[in-house]
Design a protein that fits this description.
Elements lengths: L1 H15 L12 H6 L4 E5 L6 H10 L1 H11 L4 E7 L11 H15 L1 H10 L14 H14 L3 E7 L7 H14 L5 E7 L3
Parallel strand pairs: 1-4, 2-3, 3-4
Helix pairs in contact: 5-6, 5-7
Length: 193
């Protein structure tokens, strides 16, 4: 446990430190968080700790503080998804990711969901993920995100663990669309290939 705490402390200091930037071969993560740049890609070989790092980043209190600074005077919310090719169909599909991200979003922003239900009561008839098509979800995500008055950071891990290659293109198209707005940042991780 002491070894893990030391590793996490060193990782945190490396990620959030603005010192010795000239020795690094990558962009400073904190600078990216506070900048107008919208995408950050973490890549490495299989088993190199990308998923552990993404989980750490999306859950750490320093991340929320930095994102709140980026979002000022509004607030920031963090959404995350971890693709897993050994998991269920939902865990390795775009539809599963979109359902999870929308669920997280609505859980933190119930007012936005209520407003959508008022304007489109047909949405409330959908009780499970089986009631939604992937196309429905792709259309709903940008509408919901744009209705939110704050800012959103999305952490997506394991892009290389998708079930279908065409879903990768659909996801990247969606992310490109979402990040045209300065209110959405996306941190991605995958193997480099």
């Amino acid at each position: 446990m002491e070894l893990m705490n030391g590793f996490l402390k060193e990782t945190r200091e490396t990620l959030y430190s603005a010192t010795a930037i000239s020795r690094r071969s990558w962009d400073n993560f904190t600078d990216w968080l506070l900048s107008s740049s919208t995408m950050y890609w973490i890549h490495g070989k299989a088993g190199s700790g990308k998923s552990t790092l993404m989980h750490f980043l999306s859950k750490h209190e320093t991340m929320q503080e930095l994102l709140d600074n980026w979002a000022k005077p509004q607030t920031a919310i963090i959404l995350s998804w971890y693709f897993w090719n050994s998991g269920s169909q939902a865990q390795r599909s775009l539809k599963g990711a979109l359902c999870a991200l929308l669920y997280q979003f609505v859980s933190t922003q119930p007012g936005v969901a209520t407003d959508f239900l008022r304007t489109d009561p047909h949405l409330s008839s959908r009780k499970s993920s089986a009631d939604w098509s992937q196309a429905d979800l792709i259309n709903l995500v940008p509408k919901m995100f744009s209705a939110f008055k704050g800012r959103i950071a999305v952490f997506l891990d394991g892009l290389d663990e998708f079930d279908r290659d065409e879903d990768v293109k659909a996801l990247l198209d969606l992310l490109h669309s979402l990040t045209k707005s300065s209110s959405v940042k996306v941190c991605l991780s995958s193997r480099p290939e």
